[in-house]
Structure formats: structure tokens, C-alpha cells
Amino acid sequence: MVKKPVTSKLPAPTSRPVGRPSSYTDEIADIICERMINGENFSQICGDAEMPSRAALYRWRAARPDFDARCARAREALADFLLDKIEAMADETTEANVHSQRLKISTAQWRAEKMAPRTLGPRVNTEITGGALINVQHTTVDVRLLTPEARDAFKQALLAARTIEHDPNEGQR
Q: What is the pTM of this model?
């Protein structure tokens, strides 16, 4: 008895990608980043019916390094937006609302630090002194205690430090 060869019932492979097509467009990416710069977070943006889901945004960020980098820059701008909001909340604080404002300011400050830890997070200064002993000092700046002028000066110093940090000609001077 001769056996017949077993044939597969699977369809022939195609060159088409598997899965649902992405709805990513540069226009949607621009809108998302613009909205972040103007103070909205992913949850707020993705709450709109016209916008993709949070899961889609995270998939796009994983699949598209350029979009991920744009989101990171927009997130730093969102942190800067929060700093302006903190200043406005501080200006609106009265004796009657000081406790609730303190909570709101503290929360906004925490969020801003998490969104832009390089520029707004706690500063860690390392100083090496003496022979084999190492003395490490950590400095935390509470911007709530600064005057508006000092906050502005602090913000400008941080922005200047970030510019120096990214200057490609820094080592050539």
C-alpha cells in the first residue's frame, strides 16, 4: 500500500504584515505632542474619541523611536507647563485655601519632577574631598519656598544647564 503525501491546509505565506494596521499618522502625532505641550497628559488626550487609545500610544512609542523622542520632549514641555501652573496656584493662595493649594502645588511639583527628572528632579551633587574618604552631599530645592523672581532665576539656570549639557561643541572649547 502506497501512502499519499500529507498536504498542509494552511494558506500559503504572504508578504503582507500580520495584525491590525496601525492608525499612526504624522498629523495625529503632531496633535498629541501639541496637546501635551499645552498641558494635557496621555489620559486626557486618549479620552477623546478621535484619538488613539493609551495602549496604541505605547505601541507607537515602542515601534517608532522618532515618535518616542517627540513624546519625551513634549513631556518635558508639559512639566514646564506645570511649573507655570504651580506659580499661578501659589499666586491664588489665600488664608482660606492654603491647605488645599498646598496639596495641589505639592502634587503638581511631584508630577513635574517625574516628567522631567533631569531638569526638575532633586539635584545630587557629589564632591570628593580628602584622601580615601568620600563626602557626598545631596541638595533638594523646594521651589515652593522661593520668591517668584527666584523661581524664574532657578528655571532659567536649569534651562541654561540643559543647553550646556546638550552642546556638541562643549568638549572642543
A: 0.56
Residue 121 lies in a domain: yes
pLDDT tens readout for residues 55-75: 999 999 999 999 999 999 999
Phi-psi region of 136 (alpha: psi -120 to 50; beta: other; left: phi over 0): beta
- Which residues form the domain of 146? 26-166
Residue 10 is assigned to a structural domain of this protein: no
Torsion of CA 144, 150, 154, 157, to 10 degrees: 180
Q: Are 23 and 52 in contact (CB under 8 A)?
A: yes
**Average of per-residue pLDDT values in the chain:** 81
CATH number of the domain enclosing 41:
1.10.10.60
Number of domains in the chain: 1
Distance CA 71, CA 63 (A): 13
The Cα 163–Cα 173 span in angstroms is 15
List, in order, residues 6 or more apart from 96 with CB less than 8 Å away.
Answer: none
